[in-house]
Hints:
This protein is α/β, with parallel strands linked by helices. It has helices at 3-13, 45-56, 87-99, 117-120, 144-163, 178-183, 198-201, 203-216, 238-249, 269-272, 278-282, 287-301, 312-315, 336-345, 354-358, 362-368; strands at residues 17-19, 22-24, 28-30, 61-68, 80-81, 103-109, 125-126, 130-132, 137-141, 168-173, 221-229, 256-261, 326-330, 349-352. The chain is built from 16 helices and 14 strands. The strands form 3 sheets. An 8-stranded parallel barrel has the order 3-4-6-10-11-12-13-14, surrounded by 6 helices. Helix 2 (45-56) runs parallel beside helix 3 (87-99) and helix 5 (144-163) packs parallel to helix 8.
Amino acid sequence: MNNENIATFATSILQPVTLGPVTLPTPVIKAATSEGRSPEGKVTQALIDFHRGFIEGGVGMTTLAYCAISKEGFAAPGEILMIRENISGLKKFTEAMHEAGGLASAQLGHAGPVANKKITGVQSIAPSKFFNLTSLQTCREVTIKEMNKIVEQFADAAEVAADAGFDAVELHFGHLYLVSAFFSPWINKRKDQYGGSIENRTRFAKEILLKVKERVGNRLAIIIKLSMDDGIKGSIWLDESTETARILDETGAVDAFELTMGSSVSKQMFLFRGETDIDGMAKTQKGIMKLGVKWFGKKILGQYPYQDLYMLESARQFLPVVKNSKLILLGGINNLEHIIKAKEQGFPFVAMGRALLREPAIVNKMKINPKAQGLCIHCNKCMFSVFFTTNCVFTKDYATSSQEALL
């Protein structure tokens, strides 16, 4: 195959794809990876440069993560606060992505049991009283009054995203963050209309989704990040996550589901797979927490071997269930062959995380050479860089510009 035929072949795979009211230049989405480049909760030039690198490298849409709907919803330091006060910087962000030729999505969430009082200043909340072994903190049960407020905060955040020019919002209903925790019988012990059956445990998510749709209409695409399985005994598994997807899909308000695995509460390596760098993780902690990571880290985080396309088999279970929405495949996607297989299996989009941290221009690399392999070795040293500024340790952090907030 000569160079011209190679380029034609790659273009046929990496062609524009429609997602709700928008069209992505390529089917590759930069998955949300908390960036840590917003020390004041606002957009910075460093954050813009970080994401623009992915768009210039051929990604169709990049996901701004993690955007907390309230100060109480922060999950880690240096995250965006998605409120109207910050809209000027958010507009600069979307304008930069559009100028670079791609689209921008904003991941909206409330950390719930994943939140840490050291970051938020308040006690964390969960569907029921819950002790988070990772943070060694007890979460209190969220009240219905608070839940109603959170529904409005999700809608407010989505409206801010739309007004700021974002092309999509990703509602974070995964990884045992607040909404996902409602799906989990391990955490959700409620006896009211939000506990018990999977229909009840999906009710909060449905209320958020419908309020967001009511507020933004067709101004942008609505994506739901949904955990298929979190690797925790008695928690989320396919028999119920597929039912959750069906319930939400039937509303007609979802444009796509990005299917994920694992949690940020326990067994975190179930999401990442591959090496578990305990020494690296311990260096991010202090005092008793540092010792705890060294002594019990592998037991808490878990150890799971890496393989290409490791979420595909579970994600396939959603194909006959989801009728109105498209599906985005995540997990172990490192080359054009993986994208082709995803498309053949019924997934019009793929999301990439670690591979893009290693090579922001990997999509353009595929266009030049469809047989090119990604350089990411799944060492997971980028995993704990979330406590600072997320980046691959084997390449310089190319977002070296100002961390000063753009007002």
